[in-house]
Write a sequence for this structure.
């Protein structure tokens, strides 16, 4: 048998397993079967923007940030770096004889749900609100994760999630029924799934927690069997979200028993269970709810994947990837470059880039200035080196001979900051004002952090389980902003968040506004590169920035009407695709070709967006030298 | 009236006050008396090892760390830097027309309690277990805080605390009665108070929470009136610990009413109240428990202090100290120098200093490697720049061309690390082992943090309110150490703690052991300076390192029998005063003179300790060049 005939080898191996063994292999904590030479393997791993939850790794900018780069070429390099680090770590872990959680090669990334509403806490895991942009970024990511230089083996498995029609509310995700019409389903919610499957052959798809149009996503005949397999031709395996199979009886009340839930899921094509429902398949077989043949086919699919990853062979070139690639210099440089492309300049009256700063003083103010959590987003690894926004500004200021004074000014959302000692709240705003009074220019680092927007159970804004209830900044930040602006010193406003925030006041009263997102371990260096003009900003918003949730439909309404730039009827504060440059670049279109004129002394990256009928249908990134004229081709690719 | 006749000016000002106004001024939150030109003033400020709890400041090593330097000259420079920053901040704060908590000039530092038992959570705020060392460090500190270049005004007020016989248990401090004999009282617990009062004229003393020999410390006729004022000739003011006056009736049950407590305290010489008891003085006067004259004298003392600080004059040179001194370059350099002198080398088989590291790999392991809280200790400010141990090692490794891999390895005390994602505990030790397997040398950064040893209400080891119950490292750390040592790679063990830890296993099985204490914002740079040989270690232990609490008397027993190097009958793991150097230095004594022979190529600081009858009676710090012979005079100074 040829080594590349993975399906045949899987079939042969599985043929030697008992029913109980087969069922055990459908669980994400697949135990060893020693008599068959099968080691213990935990399928759960994460790599959303770097190898996650498994010690040190290069922590690239959060997904939403990378979407703002509109740079699929760089995204592919980032994903290649991630898969190199994933393999390097796996090569070490497997020496222990087993592969535990977060140690394997099956990555449950990317999250290609559509960020339909800025309130969704997990929106920053996605590539934003546009299906085409989402698909393009995901294709680049999946290829980088899966494809390497080994002609036989897959480098890592990518998993598209959460299939399908999933974007909050977090508090109801285990019981929610998303109601969606045919047009929105295909044009918005499924577009990226279909396209990535066509273009990048992802190994896996993860089912969502919720129901969609009444069917539990992880056991949906419509979604899994008819659309995913039959219509989209998906050849890979499906994994349930964690605990989602139990939800089918416990919270969705579609089935009566756990055995029925498990059988329904596998029968409809969910081969792998994250959770503890599939052990009930034994009872399900006994009760005639599912055949052993169906189970056998599911196990064969999973072992085909494991064989394809080279787990049972000794000639996989990825086995030679050394541990030294983890957080290597090249990856850190790549990270800084990506991070600098994720920054979106939203306003600039000419204050940026900062110049002639020698002997000047910069006041850096705000709860996100020296915060490390905002560098990381969620589903993140731990960087062994990181540069906060403050540190990046300090280091850059050192090189130009400027001084930096820093004041936190307030807790990010509470009235009181326990980390600063009793009663510190009284002094916090005064400290900020004092710092501002020393300064020639102020950089305010405000916004949210991943504890304020995130996943059910992970984010700390318990009231809404990770979702936001407002687009406004917390009151303590508003008060700080007011106090700082009253000092009338030129001010650059840096908003750090993974989602749209109401930046009306900053837009009206600050000299410049930068949207920073969650910029990764090199975030401070990247921001400094932008602020001090080492790099011209080139990011564009992957989501619409509204003024208020009052402009939007109910959060639980999955109709796309009046949502995202494609359907929003109002005038946003900043539209999808918006982003300024230091360079003065104009576009001139002639059919598929766009000629760019850079009428400035600034060198800059630039993304040309092509819209048709108000919908993004193509984009191309260019890099323009000072006073350069460049023609790029941007066909309608949607 | 001459401006320097502060007492007379205070008397005149106070003479215009009503009784109610006078009482209000005995509270730490002294309100404004506008008709008399007296602004609002909050007496509470902290400066234990840097301006604390008031935004950014240079954060020097924790007090226990600086005691390990045995460097009174440098300590004085540190305290001068602190008072410069305190003044610079005050000059800004007062522009707001009031001075709130942590904004004034009256510093409730230093803590000169004797660290009689390693279990005391607040021990790291002190200068250790020896009365003489404590006094010498405190004298240098108090002078640096109080004395400047203005002939008329005091720079800041220092406050000796907690008077007296105070060192846990934290959980009982509001009701505890410390029983102490005459000899221990004077030779151990009061020695430093007496000596600092004689040598450095501290402005204030803070009373302790507990009772001593039955009397509440903040209202003790014996301690305050007879000993402090009459015997020691203390001329300054006394402030209560915060809430301590309420404890007199509520928890000590010495008085029946709050008015009685307040009267008892002021009558015995506690002029200033941190807490809310002294408003009851109005009732106390009405009930005849205290005279208005006594209250008047107390207020006069407090206003004498405020006049002496130049708060009511416009010719105080300290008013010109600019904000730019805060965290200035000179202070950062001073901080790094002090931090490097606080590191104590406890074992070295020759592995240190690390040399010929080009192309080599260093594994940095442990929960304290990249922790920021251990840099800060408690009663701390916030550094705008800081260098973790890991970062310091990384930066130093960069300069010599070595690679660094990092793995946290475990949570500092819990079995599970929520910051690292679900199930991370499974991978943590594996990550450490993997890192070690890449390495030529391992640096383990273990120990405690200030949440595990600290003050009642501040530290998180709730079971003992901040005190330790064991000298052992947490089990998760022991397991990590075992796993790392099993890999048999040369290992340097860095213990980070503010108190003695049982380091038996490290001493037996590691190639070198460094006691790091809580090293301040420059801690990582300072440690790297030591590890890579840029600076030779010169710190000495200011406390005995025992093997176990089993060797010690009951924690609540205040007899000094079998405690500290002066009375301990056993053989400690490392004795008080212990500390190695890279240099080979021997001592030869001739009367008061000690000739030092440096028989090595290493330049090194070195502290000569003079003991008589087993008790430290003098010390002098020297700095030896390679192969230098130096004679220093060390008289019996005790």
């Amino acid at each position: 048998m040829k080594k590349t005939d993975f399906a045949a080898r899987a079939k042969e191996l599985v043929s030697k397993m008992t029913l109980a063994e087969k069922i055990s292999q459908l669980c994400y904590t697949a135990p060893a079967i020693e008599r068959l030479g099968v080691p213990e393997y935990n399928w759960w791993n994460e790599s959303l923007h770097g190898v996650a939850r498994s010690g040190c790794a290069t922590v690239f900018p959060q997904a939403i940030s990378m979407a703002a780069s509109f740079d699929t070429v760089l995204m592919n390099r980032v994903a290649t770096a991630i898969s190199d680090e994933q393999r390097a770590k796996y090569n070490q872990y497997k020496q222990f004889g087993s592969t535990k959680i977060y140690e394997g090669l099956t990555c449950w990334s990317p999250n290609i749900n559509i960020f339909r509403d800025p309130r969704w806490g997990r929106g920053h895991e996605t590539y934003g609100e546009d299906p085409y942009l989402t698909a393009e970024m995901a294709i680049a990511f999946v290829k980088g994760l899966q494809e390497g230089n080994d002609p036989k083996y897959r480098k890592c498995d990518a998993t598209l999630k959460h299939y399908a029609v999933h974007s909050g509310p977090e508090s109801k995700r285990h019981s929610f029924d998303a109601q969606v019409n045919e047009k929105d389903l295909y044009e918005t919610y499924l577009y990226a799934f279909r396209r990535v499957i066509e273009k990048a052959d992802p190994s896996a798809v993860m089912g969502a927690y919720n129901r969609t149009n009444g069917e539990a996503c992880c056991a949906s005949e419509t979604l899994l069997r008819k659309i995913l397999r039959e219509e989209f031709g998906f050849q890979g395996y499906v994994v349930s979200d964690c605990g989602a199979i139990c939800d089918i009886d416990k919270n969705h009340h579609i089935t009566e028993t756990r055995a029925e839930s498990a059988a329904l899921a596998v029968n409809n094509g969910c081969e792998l269970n994250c959770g503890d429902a599939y052990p009930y398949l034994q009872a399900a077989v006994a009760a005639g709810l599912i055949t052993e043949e169906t189970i056998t086919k599911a196990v064969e699919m999973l072992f085909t994947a494991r064989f394809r990853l080279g787990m049972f062979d000794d000639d996989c070139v990825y086995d030679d990837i050394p541990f030294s690639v983890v957080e290597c210099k090249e990856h850190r440089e790549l990270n800084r470059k990506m991070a600098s492309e994720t920054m979106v300049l939203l306003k600039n009256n000419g204050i940026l880039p900062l110049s002639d700063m020698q002997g000047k003083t910069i006041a850096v103010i705000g709860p996100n200035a020296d915060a490390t959590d905002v560098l990381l987003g969620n589903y993140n690894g731990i960087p062994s080196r990181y540069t906060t926004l403050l540190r990046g500004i300090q280091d850059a200021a050192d090189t130009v001979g400027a001084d930096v004074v820093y004041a936190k000014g307030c807790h990010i959302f509470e009235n009181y900051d326990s980390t600063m000692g009793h009663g510190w709240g009284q002094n916090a705003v005064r400290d900020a004002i004092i710092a501002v009074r020393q300064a020639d220019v102020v950089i305010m680092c405000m916004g949210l952090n991943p504890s304020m927007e995130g996943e059910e159970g992970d984010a700390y804004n318990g009231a809404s389980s990770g979702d936001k209830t407002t687009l406004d900044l917390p009151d303590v930040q508003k008060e700080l902003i007011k106090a700082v602006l009253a000092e009338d010193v030129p001010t650059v406003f840096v908003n750090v968040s993974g989602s749209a925030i109401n930046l009306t006041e900053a837009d009206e009263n600050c000299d410049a506004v930068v949207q920073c997102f969650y910029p990764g371990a090199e975030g401070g260096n990247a921001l400094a590169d932008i602020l001090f003009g080492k790099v011209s900003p080139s990011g564009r918003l992957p989501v619409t920035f509204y003024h208020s949730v009052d402009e939007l439909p109910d959060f639980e309404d999955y109709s796309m009407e009046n949502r995202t730039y494609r359907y929003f009827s109002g005038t946003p504060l900043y539209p999808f695709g918006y982003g300024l440059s230091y360079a003065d670049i104009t576009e001139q279109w002639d059919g598929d070709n766009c000629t760019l004129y850079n009428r400035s002394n600034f060198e800059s990256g630039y993304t040309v967006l092509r819209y048709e009928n108000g919908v993004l249908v193509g984009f191309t990134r260019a890099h323009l030298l000072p006073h350069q004229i460049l023609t790029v081709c941007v066909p309608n690719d949607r």
